[in-house]
From TrEMBL:
The lineage of its organism: Bacteria, Bacillati, Actinomycetota, Actinomycetes, Mycobacteriales. Residues 1-17 have a biased composition (Polar residues). This is Neutral zinc metallopeptidase. It comes from Mycolicibacterium grossiae. It holds the Pfam family Zn_peptidase. Keywords: Membrane, Transmembrane, Transmembrane helix.
Amino acid sequence: MTFNEGMQIDTSTTSSSGRGGGGGRGIAIGGGVGGLVVMVIALVLGIDPGSVTPQQNPGQYGAPGVDAGGFDVSQCRTGRDANTIDQCKVIATGNSVDAVWAQLMPDYTRPSIRLFQGGVDTGCGPATTEVGPFYCPADQTAYFDTSFFQELTDRFGASGGPLAKEYVVAHEFGHHVQDLKGDLGRAQQDPTGPEGGGVRTELQADCYAGIWAHYASTTRQESTGQPFLQPLSDRDISDALSAAASVGDDRIQEAATGRVSPESWTHGSAAGRQHWFTVGYQTGDPQACDTFSARDLHQ
């Protein structure tokens, strides 16, 4: 899904840091809401939850700019930059998702974006890049190490198309929408298992990502008056569905161990993730994303 070259990238809610943070290993169960959310919810793509530990030094979150060794966000100016630089693609996608949800939710507020390399300190605790992209409700920030996009292709077999990457960003912002709606904590209700709160939370974020895709090419940037993105192609949708399936719990478990254990699922099956993204994309209706009431999650 290609950005219109004339769109202007707003980096005001983005910050960046170089390598560091994320010291130690172990699951932050006892760290209050933040630690539990990171373990159960924020490890959105299910890579390695053992990488998350309790917070020791909160640091600063969400300040625009760049820390030592981080990506220089001033490189991200237009849609052309978003089409050629992954970090700019993350920021521009966030701009687009913000614009879509601002139309759907009158009280929507933007999350912050933090680009990092290797490791990062967050309001939910330190994390390493092995965690994959995640959202921390304690500081209302979505965290991205863009090296994950290559991992998504090389390790999990997803296609490398632009909408596969943009889907990841829209999914994380979907968790922010859940946070604003007061639904994020529902992941703590039966946090594991194929019908548990963790899976229902993740599948709803997939559905919210689909909603963004539904409106992405028609939502216009206020400052330029033009749509953020060009219309979706069949290939774009195929890329998004490929990414959604590649991070299904069943796919990851089978690749890692040769067997599938639904009782330990936290994110949902490949078919379920594809299904709920499609529901959001086809309907454009947030009410259709009520995974908490759905009887059949994994169609």
